[in-house]
Amino acid sequence: MTGIGSFKHSSEFQRIKASVKKVSTETGESISKYYSNLPNNISINNPQDRGNAKRGVVLTRPHQAGETIHEFLPYLEVAETNESIDSTDSKDTLCAHCMKSLSVAGAGIECGDCSGFVKYCCEECMDADLLVHKVECLYLSAFDERERAQISCVERLILRLIICLGQDNNLVSQCRDLTSHHEYYFKFKQENNLVHVSPSQEALFDATESYSLGFLRFFEADLKGLIKLCFIIYVNSTVLQNFYEEPVGIMFDPFFSLINHSCEPNCILVWKGRTASLRALRPIATNEELFVSYCPVFTPKIARQQQLRNSFYFDCTCQMCSTEFDRWFPSKSGLGGMNWDKTGLDGVMIGGSEDEQQSYIELMQELKSVCSSEDMDDVSVLQSISTGIPQLNPEERLMLSNLAYKHVSVVPRQSWPMYKLFLLLKNNTIEDPIANLRFTVLTTDIENSLEHQLDFKVSLGMSFYEICIGILKLIRMQRQGEIDWNLDMLFWSALILALQANKHIVLKYNSNFQPLTQDLKSVVEDLRSLRKVDTVNEADAHVYLEQLSQELGGGVNLAKYCQPLEKEDVAQFNLILESGSVPDDQMYSNFGWLLQI
Ligand SMILES: C[S@@+](CC[C@H](N)C(=O)[O-])C[C@H]1O[C@@H](n2cnc3c(N)ncnc32)[C@H](O)[C@@H]1O
Asked: Taking every annotated instance into account, which residue ranges of this chain make up the domain SET (predicted)?
């Protein structure tokens, strides 16, 4: 690695400075020529009907539901290194180049110069990343270890973008005209806090000031350009997910940045390891514009709108946002739903009963009591209800269980607040395998039914590893005499869960939708391969799960969760496997017993 002194005398340093300066001003010209490597089934257009949306992406030929529209390696990716952020059990340290889980892909090589902050799975990955990391490393080395651990992956993505600009003129041309909304920052600064900004925007503006000054000290580049680059990343980067749809970092890609938002998207990005695959969620016609969702679709309407306004600076006018009531708070009749007041948690039921209105209001008030603090403003309250997963104390847990029990008979189980309750209870019952499996089933069932309703694969949030853990923990408890359960019922439900997980996997990863019987066959095959393990012991089960996690694309270490399996456990699996398949009419009707909260 070169030292900072020689870097600052290098031509690379000068190129970066010149590129940042160039990015600071827009050209307003047509950008298509800078995207000449796009496949010919997509093209960039200028939508007329959505205010300042500028460009969008359209299809040049029809696509079927499930069809791959475009596969690409994101231009830039950064794995999350700050362990306190969104940390989930299944997450593992990722290789900074290929993004594979280090415990799956290899022992791990650390970059010595930044004291192991950046890790790789092998020499090849380290070499492949060298061109960017050698400059990144100089930047990171200026911090002590404690400070470095606090550096967010957003800041690192901006840093990597700045470095890449010096190496790629085409990227400079692409970035010049990307939507960034950095003008809001300058307006806020110039008008001396007169412009209304939310607390989260203010926090972002403060972070921008600190990032851009740090970059200014290091690169001595144009400050306006550096600030614009921060906003290019805020507005155009996307969360990087592992197979289980858990956030593991962020990515930026100039092509993906051109796709506009709809709360009823017609395409979705799915991950196969490092490869991003853009898939049609429904049939899309020639000249139809592509839309992804910038926020989780299954979120209350006002929370979605606030998120879009806050982070992307536009008012969504899609169909889901234009309905009179919020579709995620439906009446049991299916003909109406709640319309929430924008400034509080008061709402009126349109086309449903008063009881339903009362239930929804009570549910939201109680969710507010566990998810937000007293001094939050209305925007933050809504955001925290929709995104927060607080730790519940035993009284709160009991309160939420009773609440779910009380209201499930009044409002539909597939409504958003019921889902939120089950999700909170699922996340707060990790120590109680039975309750945990029960709430996993409940959330999964709702996600699954949404998938059918919407023709849209929402984050199922359910995964093979959760099921494996759930089943194996229960088997162990049964064996140790801690529970006395009807194993038939347990395994039957577990198998159905596994079938649903498998269905999700098949839908996501095969380009054609497959009939149910196919899914069924393949999951039974999967479970059979578990049975095939001759000596049933922990190591074999680990090997099986590790193979599975490798097939599924890295980023997760399934084996960590495996519980020892013994012969009699496998015999129980056999019972189910020998019974063949689950009849269709049982697929979605076997959860009654789990509803006894
Ligand atoms: C990732 S960019 C999408 C590409 C952008 N249209 C362009 O031409 O650069 C995100 C920005 O596009 C605009 N945008 C995206 N979806 C929109 C929509 N449904 N309605 C209005 N503006 C939208 C907003 O300004 C948003 O901040």
From this structure: 29-295
258 lines ligand 1 (CB under 6 A): yes
Determine contact, residues 297/458, Cβ cutoff 8 Å: yes
pLDDT digits (tens, 9 = 90+) for 89-111: 345 678 888 887 776 555 678 88
Q: Is the dihedral of CA 4, 9, 12, 18 positive or negative?
A: positive
**Cβ 291 under 6 angstroms from ligand 1:** no
Neighbours of 312 (CB within 10 A): 18
Largest CA distance in the chain: 74
Specify the pairing of strand 347-350 against strand 337-340: antiparallel
Spatial neighbors of 57 by CB under 8 A, at least 6 apart, are 42, 43, 44, 45, 255, 258, 259, 260, 289, 290
Which amino acid, one-letter code, is at 486?
A: N
Check pocket membership of 54 for ligand 1, CB cut-off 6 A.
Answer: yes
Enter the tokens of residue 264.
């009823």
Which residue's C-alpha comes closest to atom 21 of ligand 1?
A: 53
Model confidence over 463-478: pLDDT tens digits?
454 655 566 566 667 6
Q: Is 261 in the pocket of ligand 1 (CB under 6 A)?
A: yes
Q: Where are the domains of the chain?
A: 4-30+75-252, 325-428, 435-597
- The closest residue, in CA terms, to atom 22 on ligand 1 is 53
CA of 258 to the centre of ligand 1 (A): 8
235 C-beta closer than 6 A to ligand 1? yes
pLDDT single digits (tens) 141-180 = 888 888 888 888 999 999 999 999 999 999 999 999 999 9
Predicted ipTM beyond 0.95: yes
78 CA distance to ligand 1 centroid (A)? 23
pTM: 0.82
Is the shortest distance between the CB of 410 and ligand 1 below 6 Å?
no
Scan for tokens 């939708």, then name that residue.
Answer: 513
277 and 271 Cβ atoms separated by less than 8 Å: yes
Q: Residue type at 372?
A: S
Q: How open is the CA angle 196-365-300, to the nearest 5 degrees?
A: 60
Dist. CA 255 → ligand 1 center (Å): 13
Check pocket membership of 193 for ligand 1, CB cut-off 6 A. no
